[in-house]
Amino acid sequence: MSAGLNAAQLEAVNHVHGPSLVLAGAGSGKTRVITHKIAHLMDGGMSPSRIAAITFTNKAAAEMRERAKQLAGKRAAEVLICTFHALGVRMLRQQGSYVGLKEQFSILDSDDVTKIMKDCGGSTDNATARQWQWAISAWKNQGLNSEQALAIAANEEERACAVIMARYEERLAAYQSVDFDDLISLPLKLLREHDAVRQHWQQQLGHVLVDEYQDTNATQYELLKLLVGERGRLTAVGDDDQSIYGWRGATLDNLKKLPVDYPDLKVIKLEQNYRSTSAILKAANNVIGPNPKLFPKTLWSDLGEGEPVRIAGCDNEDHEAERLVARIQSLRTTSAHKSFKDFAVLYRANHQARVFEKALRKAAIPYKVSGGQSFFDRAEIKDLCAWLRLLVNNDDDPAFLRAITTPKRGIGHTTLTQLGTFATSHKFSLFEALFANSIASALSARAVGSLHEFGRYINDMEYRARHIQGAEDAKAFMLSWLSDIGYQQHLMDGEDSEKMGAARWTNVMDFVDWMSQRCGGTIDDTAGVTMESEKKTLLEVIQTIALLSTISEREQDQDVVTLSTLHAAKGLEWPHVVLAGVNEGLLPFKTDDDSLTPEALAQRLEEERRLMYVGITRAQRTLAVSWLMRRKKGRETVAGKPSRFIAEMGLEEATTKEDPREKLRALRAEFAAKAAASAQLAANTASLS
User: Fold this and answer.
1) For residue 450, how far is the Cα from the chain centroid?
2) Overall average pLDDT of the 579-604 stretch
3) What is the pLDDT of residues 438-454, one digit of tens each?
4) Where are the beta strands (DSSP E) in 271-395?
5) Would you please indicate which residues are annotated as catalytic (active-site) residues?
6) pTM score, two decimals?
7) Which of 189, 276, 203 is nearest to 575 (CA)?
8) Which residue ranges form the domains of the chain, and what is each CATH number?
9) Which DSSP category does 595 fall into?
10) Contacts for 195-203 with beta carbons within 8 Å, 24 or more apart?
């Protein structure tokens, strides 16, 4: 089972009786270590149901699940492999009653939270509401409630925000709803304040493995500590050089705390890189060198020196995009890795993608923008999710309002306002208010009739969804529901073009297929053994819906160039990478915040350097870094300066400087020569005939 592991990987896998920190450099095989350790724990007699592997994204969890299954077979299916938030949901579904939650609570998405925030703060401005949202999220990530936030508020603005937070907490309790931050903070509260819950989970979990440990925030670390207890059966896998999410609460303090909280911590470094050539790794090691080190390490590779890293100063954004197209076209004629999906363009900010999109379209090169609109952010999918959330939690007011008005059913704003006033005065949820005995005193008989019709339909749907199991029956149910509410017609009526309406309906059908598949009962015989997947009720599947942010299957095997921000590229790799717009002011990003202390500025610079390091280490075979001699800044064009990180890469001038104009001229001459040769051949053939 351990065949093919190097000495350091083997040491990490075999250390099972105490806490360990596996410092896994970029491309050093961390997922391989985690999956082999899961298999090793099971081989040592630990029940698969007592092993948990925690990741940060659904995609990473799915990949780890698949790798574990390939390595350990059917028994790997019982291992709990999930995100921090999915673990939080599991804990709250089981023991949420301790913190006042029903089993069927709702999970609000960002848009729902913004709407509630506006209501709590008496504002109609989305931007203001989001500012409150971010501030409250930051407090929650520090483990603070509204009372504690008010106590530490530094000024009037923060005090006002803490008051809004208190109102927000009241609303969530009334709606039987939680936000994403609550999926960490409430399980933490459960473990801290309830001995029975803490003992249950510490006995349940024999070993916890955490991927991307450097991305954990303060509450996630406290949660982990309480899950593993004093025995410290914990394997933390991460890389301090790839910590790039400080802006969302991730802290390197969690790495510093580990040896303090667990004095017998075993630190194991994975320094052999299996991804990149030596030339690329030298540049990466040189860039990260100036940053202070918690645990010094140096990546190395036995893949050979490879192509030198190329640097190109470009006249402006258009010239940079033109140069990128030329590079792709050139490498597709000379490299062994010539598919479009072998190329990626990485940049600091989303707005930098536009000029590359334009140039790639002009050259007929297919591409995708990574980190674009999520499937679950589309209006039609949010509509359907609102209906389904209401089945799980009748008290989910945001879901109620969206469902009852989409598609329109003759229930107007006036009726809903009257219903809202009535519900508030009686401390009912909107759905609960529908069937209150005194509702007839507040609304007209016609309005009450329409509301009752909607309420009865929801109750009927809930009953059926609770008893429907398996993909086939779930799909039939969902298609029947969409037909009942006339959703296809609603989409067609809402679009100017039939084509756009049809595209949105295709998304709906994809959603139906995907939801149905999750209900199980499908046959898998890919491994030569016929297995039926576990059946779940549709209601069980609906309960997890807010945690799902993408349908990863939709993007499989697309032969397209990837355009991505550096943040979104973390964890990915490509044979050919271009880092674009590597200018002072962009990378490192210059902030206009004058209030930052010298210490805070130094920390910002260190994180930006780690971001550059992440970008470099995405490249397997070739890396090009481009910067702009003149760049746009707002409406102006200003002189550009190469990023300090380019000098820090320590490249040899003679071999790495690339003149893009010369490159383009040579490429055009090559294409012209080929075209002339083809024309001559055609002429010769014609004369012979």
Assistant:
1) 40
2) 82
3) 888 888 889 889 999 99
4) 310-314, 343-347, 367-369
5) 30-31, 211-212, 242, 618
6) 0.74
7) 276
8) 7-93+185-272 (3.40.50.300), 106-175 (1.10.10.160), 310-372+556-658 (3.40.50.300), 376-547 (1.10.486.10)
9) T
10) 197/91, 197/95, 197/98, 198/226, 198/229, 200/95, 201/91, 201/226, 201/227, 202/226, 202/227, 202/228, 202/229, 202/231
List Cβ neighbours of 357 (8 Å cut-off, separation of 6 or more): 367, 369, 563
Name residue 364's amino acid.
A
Strand, helix or coil for residue 290: coil
Q: Which token pair is 428?
A: 């009912």
φ, ψ of residue 534 in degrees (nearest 5) = -60, 135
Q: Which residues contact 434 (CB under 8 A, 6 or more apart)?
A: 419, 451, 452, 454, 455
pLDDT for 673 beyond 80: no
Q: Are 346 and 615 in contact (CB under 8 A)?
A: yes
What is the per-residue DSSP string for 324-359?
A: HHHHHHHHHHH-S--SGGGEEEEESSGGGHHHHHHH
Spell out a b/e string for 57-86, using b for 16 or more CB atoms within 10 Å of the CB, else e: bbbbbebbbebbbeebeeebeebbbbbbbb
pLDDT digits (tens, 9 = 90+) for 474-514: 999 999 999 999 999 988 888 778 888 888 898 899 889 88
For 564, the 3-state DSSP assignment is: strand
Residue 578 near residue 324 (C-beta atoms within 8 A): yes
The CA distance from 541 to 515, in Å, is 7
